[in-house]
Amino acid sequence: MKKILTLCPHCFNTIKNEYPQLGGNFEVLHYTEFVNQLIKDKKIKPLRSLNETVSYHDSCYLGRHNKIYDDPREIAQSIPGIKLLEMDKCRDRGFCCGAGGGRMWMEENTGKKVNIERSQEAIDTGADEVAVACPFCYIMMDDGVKELGEGENVRVRDVSLILLDNLKKD
To answer: Is the distance from CB of 17 to CB of 62 less than 8 angstroms?
Structure first.
């Protein structure tokens, strides 16, 4: 059986759950599952301690649609000194970043923008950094944090990049 590793939760969901209907039977992993297993197998080992607080945003297609909640968090928590701060709406109660339904390419004119709402929830945790595991979530959360004027205080990064920085020697 062929194995496919995805970076995008949307692609992960489509290839894993929809391709089999068309004869595409593959083992599909989101990169957070793969990297977390490498950490558990001690093939990747964080090198240094970081003194940071991180709030993880659950992507809709990774979280609610495919029930992958722990792997991204475990990657972040594998780094010594990282303290995970949860948003009120997390895991199966997670809230969309605002990119869903094509909203990423639209300007919302009615009410509060979804990404602003979600970014504010992340900021309200008091975390130094917002971790994501989806390129769409990254764009929406980063834009939201900046639009709220917190771009200098709160960093938005993919959880893989947080780990990568820890794997680099000084």
So the answer is: no
Report the predicted TM-score, pTM, of the whole model to 2 decimal places. Answer: 0.90
**Which helix (H) or strand (E) is 166 found in, with range?**
helix 159-167
Q: Are 148 and 122 in contact (CB under 8 A)?
A: no
What distance, in Å, lies between the first and last C-alpha atoms of the chain? 40
Q: How far apart are the C-alpha atoms of 119 and 159, rounded to whole Å?
A: 16
- CA-based nearest residue to 135, from 3, 11, 38: 11
pLDDT in tens, 132-151: 999 999 999 999 999 999 99
Task: Collect the ranges in the chain with pLDDT lower than 50.
Answer: none
- Cβ within 8 Å of residue 146, ≥6 positions away: none
The two tokens of residue 151 are 């771009």
Which tokens in the block code for residue 72? Answer: 């991204």
Task: Report the 10 Å Cβ neighbour count for 73.
Answer: 22
Q: What are 106's two structure tokens?
A: 């639209």
Q: Is 77 exposed, middle or buried (0-12, 13-18, 19+ CB in 10 A)?
A: middle
